[in-house]
Amino acid sequence: MGSRSRFACTPGWLWAAAIVVVSGCGGSGKGAPGGTSGQGGGGGIDGGVDGPGAAVFTHPLCGMPYPAQACDGDPHGQWTLAALCVNRYQDCPGAVVRPSGTATATIDFQDGSPEAYFEYAYSYDIETRYSVPPSCIAGGNCEAIGCFAGDNPCSCIVGNGSGGGVRARWTPNVTGEVVATYSSGMLRFCAGATTADSLIGGRRVIWNRICVENMDCRPSNPCHYGRAHCTAGAVACQDTGSQRQVGTPCGTDRVCGATGACVACAAGGPCQLANQPCKRAVISCSTAAPVCTATANLADGTSCGVKRACLGGVCKSDDGEPCTADAECRQSCTCGDAQCSTRYCGRPCACQYAPPGGACAGFLADATEPPVGCNKACYQGRCLTAVGQTCTRDADCGTGHCTCWNSGCNGGRICSKTACPCQYANSGADTCTGPLMDGLMDFTCSSSRMCVQGTCQ
Q1: What is the spatial distance between Cα 418 and Cα 134, in angstroms, rounded to a whole number?
Q2: Between 19 and 362, whose confidence is greater?
């Protein structure tokens, strides 16, 4: 909320001639916020309220403690500003508080989908003239109300203005007081049939309901659609018999069910998803039955078990802990020895091994097929095609031998344990099986030679 200048005047001059007197004051022009937060007051005792737009600062409810009425109305729908309660000290003898200026605001309560929201739009530009004995502020300093210290009474003119909007979540009660918090404050809204009393960010605001003929309203069954009929600002709600969407809020911790009944379901309450300790979750009532639904990941590093912590919403084992798959670890499930007979969470070491919690230490034994990190087999620290698997060239194979596996070499090639120029080897056997068909141009021969009787000629 912004503030304008305040001016201190001698008590005898302050209210004598309004603006003319102000311009002649000897104030220092210091800025100070005005006092507007929810402390009753319909107008100064001596002479009431004057000035342009002053009517918006008067209302019978302003002089009563909040809430000034029964909270038995339906808050849904739109409301328009009836009064902004800025006067304080009206019950204190000798106090005069006179506001002037402009104030406009609307507030709209809607169900929304899947959440319900209220929207509050406002523009306040207020100048308040104070003449308040220090005894009215419990003997406090005049600074407490934005006036200069040492005056008696505390006399000044305080200006303040603010504007903008708030859109925040609320829980529909259908009837009763609405209490909601938002980023910069709290809303309390007490709806009656035609008027509402509220505290918004500590500011006392009175509202009038806006009734539009045939607008949606809540009949006696809040899970049915209603049609409004307006009489002197009051709403008579006709039940249309049509059901509202399943999951629509219809009261505190209650939503509409498939049969049109208002059933118990505490939406928004915390819950824990089974086997997902790293997910933050809340109860969703979109189906009218409570369902635990994930909303966010817990912060990385959050403990989720003994020697386990969250990472990206998944519970991972700490480095050095035994594992069977990469998914269990923060980085990789690494072989712990050259034969990969043990595995631990640690750094990625494709075709290498590392002791628990250590750095990559050496190559895995040739032909080792690790469960992760290499979908073929390891040879001298490289991930290559294993014996018996298909290949297209010698360099594909860990053994360095890509061999035909029948005499016509028409079934492709496989990695073999031994070199077989102009020979074939069934399933990568230890020895060559037999000669290739004469006339084949085997790549194991030089480009100008061909296979004849199992040799390159």
Answers
A1: 106
A2: 362
Name the nearest CA neighbour of 207 among 101, 51, 103, 340. Answer: 103
Which spans in 257-415 are helix H? Answer: none
Q: In a 3-state reduction of DSSP, which class is residue 411?
A: coil
Question: What distance in Å separates the CA atoms of residue 390 and residue 204, rounded to the nearest whole number?
Answer: 81
Whole-Å CA distances, 449 to 423, 432, 435, 439, 452: 14, 20, 15, 9, 9
Q: With contact defined as beta carbons under 8 Å apart, do 189 and 178 qualify? A: yes
What size, in residues, is the chain? 457
Write out the DSSP string of 60-79: GGGGSPSS-S---S---EEE
Closest CA to 89 of 136, 153, 23: 136
The amino acid that residue 106 corresponds to is T
Phi and psi, residue 427, nearest 5°: 55, 30
Give the pLDDT band (50/70/90) at residue 18: very low
User: DSSP class of residue 329?
Assistant: B
Interatomic CA distance for residues 437 and 312, integer angstroms: 58
Extract the tokens encoding 175. Answer: 């009837």
* Structure token pair of residue 434: 């037999």
How does pLDDT run across 81-109, given as a tens digit for each residue? Answer: 999 998 778 788 888 888 899 999 999 99
Structure tokens at 64: 């009563």
Cα 238 to Cα 111, 220, 226, 230, 393: the distances in Å are: 19, 9, 5, 11, 82
Once rounded to an integer, what is the mean pLDDT over residues 104-130?
88
Q: Write out the two tokens for 322.
A: 């035994």
Handedness of CA 173, 174, 180, 186 (dihedral sign): negative
Backbone angles phi, psi at 290, to 5 degrees: -65, 125
* Residue 12, phi then psi, degrees to nearest 5: -70, -25
The whole-angstrom separation of Cα 85 and Cα 105 is: 13
User: Each residue of 163-221: pLDDT tens digit?
Assistant: 999 999 988 888 889 999 998 899 999 999 889 999 999 899 999 999 889 988 888 89
What is d(CA 124, CA 201) in angstroms, rounded to the nearest whole number? Answer: 14
Residue 359: Cβ within 10 Å count: 10
Residue range 365-387, pLDDT digits in tens: 888 877 776 777 888 888 888 88
Q: Nearest 5°: phi and psi at 295?
A: -120, -25
pTM of the model: 0.57
Q: Quote the percentage of the chain above a pLDDT of 70.
A: 86
Domain limits of the chain? 2-210, 217-264, 318-382, 385-457
Instruction: Indicate the Cα dihedral angle 419, 422, 426, 429, nearest 10°.
Output: -20
- Tell me the residue type at 43: G
Any idea which residue has 């080792």 for tokens?
368
